[in-house]
Design goal:
The complex is a heterodimer of chains A (311) and B (322). Chain A is 38% helix and 14% strand. Chain A is of the alpha/beta class and 311 residues long. In chain A, the strands form four sheets. Chain A has a four-stranded parallel beta sheet, with helices on both faces. In chain A, strands 10-9-11-12 form a four-stranded parallel beta sheet. In chain A, strand 1 and strand 2 form a beta hairpin. In chain A, helix 5 runs antiparallel to helix 6 (160-181) and helix 6 packs parallel to helix 12 (288-304). The longest helix of chain A is centred in the middle third of the chain and has 22 residues, at 160-181. The mean pLDDT of chain B is 88. Classes of the chains: A alpha/beta (311), B mainly alpha (322). Chain A binds chain B through residues 80, 92-96, 98-104, 106-107, 109, 118-119, 121-124, 126-127, 131, 199, 225-227, 229, and chain B through 26-28, 46, 49-50, 53-55, 110, 163, 166-168, 171-172, 175, 182-183, 185, 292, 296-299, 301.
């Protein structure tokens, strides 16, 4: 089993000694050596005797966050589609986010499992806890939660300073975009997250928050479901100024281009059919800032294309 | 009687072998020596956890579910005098599915999902029982039509629940509907139900053999047809409800196992019923072992494998019987 260990100990030195030495090195700058405590998104207290050295991540976005804060070498197991950064794709896979292989997870003997509360099967994750593993539940719903998640996962893996820096960068980035775009004239838009069935997101969704900070107005933001299903007719009736969509691939504009069938749409007449690669905006990772910047620029372009802006 | 003894002995040996295989195979490779060490009370803690807490409950649950469905299928086929009858044809699984999906939609805990599935199965059983009873004369065709229509109603409700559920809930729901043993951790009650029902149905075997030839002949030969038919219906319902509560709606075991056994062993219910319990268990245990390992670490729902094995076998049997 190609377990990823941060330190290769010489034969005379058992692996735990090396791990202990590394733990001391990591903990020294903080001045404290001992228990780590954080509260996860399920509101539970997570306690570790020391920084987690063998982490299993149960979602692609959590894997990405762990790499982002510099804990990539401590990740010993991931789920399928954990493809960013490239190094993440080489870590042993323990099933898919929707169906886990409990045997493999146990066999990796992790000291921390980071789970995705709404994406992993609750029964399987509960089972892991019953079998004695420490589970951190993540459920970032807003950009602020995402920054908190960065800090918490960094703390659990013994990298609190890196986590604080990355979280601060994220918060600053969000603040800058807000300052630049949130007050700009409102742009009524439709965000297409899926094609068949046609699905959008409401204001509670993290993408809804991005639309808000770019000065957009989600025409379907008031709907009660987080990811409402729509008929094409209701989009035609709402006549959005901008249609933004992901796609089934990283460069598949087919979904948004399909709207050109309706020449009467304002978005079609002004060529405001925009595409954002789904991995930049539909994953709750720090890369969402890139997606947000792209969205803000697209909305700004739409404002310039307004007839009254006098091109 | 002697023939029955030999058949059951052979099937029991195969069952033990398949269970051993299921305990030994998994996405983590363990040697036979490791397996033996754990079975005899030793072994490393990790290996003990893997075998005793993950594989053993799942293996027993697979065996119990397969046995329950196969016996339920055998009983339904006799009851309805219809070779295409399976445990789900009268809507019991539909009721259970609606119960399970609604409780998943409400975000209830694991135990409550199983409870709701059982309640749904019970409700559907009583509904079909009450409606088919009716006022006029009663025939298996009437029971079958009532059940099929109730099942269609449940099917519509299932589609409705799937359509309005949030995306995050859908994978769990689909896995339940396809049949999934990955959550089954308490197979005890199901094994007891299987044992009790087989012991209860066995003495009825002779009457069932007569019933299979038609209710008129059965009545002429002194069988009290109506009580017998309702007893069979309720026994089959209890078996099916236990199975879907444990593992969701696993397909095809209940349909093909009794047919396979009839082709090989002849249509004697005194042999078919206990043999179905063992053969159904063997098939599902084998299918679940494949589901866990064939594309590991990805896990397939067991229903995928049973249907993939079941469809060609059933088509072959159908073709051959022409």
């Amino acid at each position: 089993m190609p377990a990823v260990r941060p330190v290769t100990a010489p034969p005379a030195l058992p692996p735990w000694v090396a791990a202990w030495a590394m733990l001391c090195l990591l903990a020294l700058p903080a001045g404290v050596l001992g228990e780590i405590r954080v509260t996860d998104d399920a509101g539970r207290d997570i306690r570790l005797a020391g920084p987690a050295q063998r982490v299993v991540s149960l979602s692609p976005h959590l894997t990405e966050i762990l790499f982002h804060v510099g804990a990539g070498a401590q990740v010993v197991g991931t789920v399928s589609f954990s493809d960013f950064p490239e190094a993440a794709a080489r870590i042993p896979v323990v099933g898919s986010a929707g169906q886990l292989d409990l045997e493999r997870i146990l066999a990796l003997e992790p000291d921390l499992v980071v789970a995705w509360q709404s994406g992993n099967p609750a029964r399987q994750v509960t089972r892991l806890e019953q079998l004695g593993l420490t589970v951190y539940y993540s459920e970032p719903r807003r950009l602020a939660d995402l920054a908190d998640t960065l800090e918490q996962l960094a703390t659990l893996t013994g990298l609190p300073e890196s986590g604080a820096a990355r979280a601060e960068a994220l918060r600053q980035g969000v603040l800058e975009l807000t300052r630049q775009y949130a007050h700009r004239p409102s742009v009524p838009l439709f965000y297409q997250i899926w094609d068949r069935p046609l699905m959008t997101i409401n204001d509670e969704h993290i993408i809804g928050e991005l639309i808000g900070l770019c000065g957009g107005h989600n025409l379907f933001g008031e709907l009660p479901a987080l990811v409402p299903r729509l008929g094409r007719e209701s989009v035609l009736a709402a006549d959005p100024e901008v249609i933004v969509g992901g796609g089934s691939g990283e460069d598949n504009r087919a979904w948004v281009e399909d709207w050109r069938r309706w020449q009467g749409l304002t978005a079609v007449q002004r060529d405001n059919l925009f595409f954002i690669p789904p991995s930049l905006i539909q994953r709750q990772t720090p890369r969402i800032l890139e997606g947000a910047a792209l969205l803000c620029e697209q909305l700004e372009l739409a404002r310039q294309r307004r007839p009254e802006s006098g091109q | 009687m002697n023939r029955l003894g030999i058949i059951l002995a052979v099937l029991s040996i195969v069952a033990l072998a398949v269970m051993g295989l299921s305990l030994g195979l998994g996405s983590v490779a363990l040697s036979l020596g490791d397996l033996w060490a754990v079975v005899t009370g030793g072994g490393e803690p990790l290996q003990r956890t893997l075998i005793l807490e993950l594989r053993l409950p799942r293996t027993l649950a697979a065996f119990a579910t397969g046995g329950l469905l196969a016996v339920a299928g055998a009983l339904m086929q006799v009851l309805l005098r219809n070779p295409l009858a399976d445990p789900y044809v009268l809507g019991i699984s539909g009721g259970a599915a609606v119960g399970a999906l609604l409780s998943m939609l409400a975000g209830l805990a694991t135990a409550l999902v199983s409870g709701a599935a059982f309640a749904g199965a019970l409700l559907s059983t009583l509904l079909v029982f009450g409606l088919a009873h009716g006022t006029g004369s009663w025939t298996p065709v009437r029971l079958l039509l009532t059940g099929v229509v109730v099942a269609a109603g449940w099917g519509a409700l299932i589609s409705f629940i799937l359509a309005v559920s949030p995306g995050a809930q859908l994978p769990g729901m689909l896995y339940w509907l396809m049949g999934d043993l990955s959550h089954a951790s308490h197979p005890g009650p199901a094994l007891i139900v299987l044992l009790v029902v087989v012991l209860m149905a066995w003495p009825l075997g002779r009457s069932l053999n007569v019933l299979a030839r038609g209710s008129l002949q059965a009545a002429a030969l002194g069988v009290s047809v109506r009580p017998l038919e309702w007893t069979v219906y309720l026994l089959a319902a209890a078996l099916t409800a236990s199975a879907v509560t444990l593992a969701g709606t696993v397909g095809f075991v209940g349909l093909i196992v009794p047919h396979m056994l009839r082709l090989v062993l002849g249509n004697d219910q005194r042999i078919i019923l206990p043999a179905s319990a063992l053969a159904g268990g063997i098939l599902l245990t084998l299918a679940d072992t494949l589901a866990r390992t064939v594309i590991a670490p990805q896990q397939l729902p067991v229903g995928v494998i049973t249907a993939m094995l079941g469809v060609p076998v059933f088509l072959y049997l159908l073709h051959r019987s022409r």
